Amino acid sequence: MATPGTPPPHRVVVLALDGLIPFELGIPQRIFGKARDAEGRPVYEVVTCSVRPPGPVETDADFSVVVGNGPEALAGADTVVVPASYELGPVQREGVLTPELAAALAHIRPGTRLVSICTGGYVLAAAGYLDGRPATTHWMHAEHFQRLFPRIDVDADVLFVDDGDVLTSAGVAAGIDLCLHLVRRDHGAAVANEVARRTVVPPHRDGGQAQYIQRPVPEARSAGTTAARAWALGRLHEPIQLRAMAEQESMSVRTFTRRFREEVGVSPGQWLTQQRIEHARHLLESSDLPVDHVARDAGFGTAQSMRQHLQATLGVTPTAYRRTFRSGTETGR
User: Distance between alpha carbon 108 and the CA centroid of its chain, in Å?
Assistant: First the structure.
């Protein structure tokens, strides 16, 4: 129960379908369930339901799980999460909902935030929620997903897609990335980082799922780019040239750029921008530094440059971002 004067926790309802993957079913509870405000209060309530009355739901493992809520729980959701299942049947074969699943989804109120993990995106797509939107799914299914749902703009390279009120993730562990992203979006980097620390995962994973697609294994003597990334993270406030990063690994710029993209999934320039944005968010939330100082410390040079990058990535200005999350921390939002 919420403390008087504070809003109730955001209600996340997880839809457990037959053939579900236990690991993915547990991600929302692990991430949202551990999120706390500055006063230590839960900021989410996580509930699991099935498309049938309470009872057992089969998994892809040698055990089933007993779910205590039926589909009517979806009516009270602020966010609905659909994890992957290996038994989607006509949903995955033909892009058509079963009557049972359609009846369950009918409980969802308009305006509810919708989230899918891995092939859970087939459910949102079959229900029409992804029409005309960008989305992703596990890279192994992306081509089939695009053929089955041509009205969706499928991006097979990213870990997740945030399209405002509808979000989709790539395969399996990318659900962790997406749920942490939502905690960060809802309550700021400090809350998300604490959840990540407790879960022993990075608060923000570099690159996309392109780095996990099976490719020929590089020769054993091939060097990596880890040292260059560590070198760059220690001097984000300075101008960093691509050549200087390549020199940390004793590589040519061309070889370094290719290796970097293979390992991280994005170019060195894109990666640097991501790191600078994350550092700027941390400073905006945790310090009283003027915006132009934050811009310099994060390596953007000018407040205008940082404003453009945050606006493009987060949809808000630095001042608006700070006002949202500093006030949220202070009031225990």
Answer: 22
Q: What does the DSSP 8-state code read for residue 219?
A: P
Please state, in angstroms and rounded to a whole number, the distance separating the CA atoms of residues 12 and 32.
8
This model's pTM is above 0.85:
no
Helical (H) or strand (E) element with 311: helix 303-314
- What pLDDT digit, counting tens, does each position of 61-88 carry? 999 999 999 999 999 999 999 999 988 9
C-alpha 82: how far from chain center: 14
**Residues 19, 58: contact at Cβ < 8 Å?**
yes
> Which band of pLDDT confidence, cut at 50, 70 and 90, is reported for residue 219?
very low
Spatial separation of the C-alpha atoms in residues 103 and 137, rounded to whole Å: 24
Contact 265, 207 (CB under 8 A): yes
Q: Angle at Cα 27 formed by Cα 23 and Cα 29, nearest 5°?
A: 125
Strands (E), the chain: 10-16, 44-50, 55-58, 64-67, 79-82, 113-116, 134-135, 153-154, 160-162, 166-169
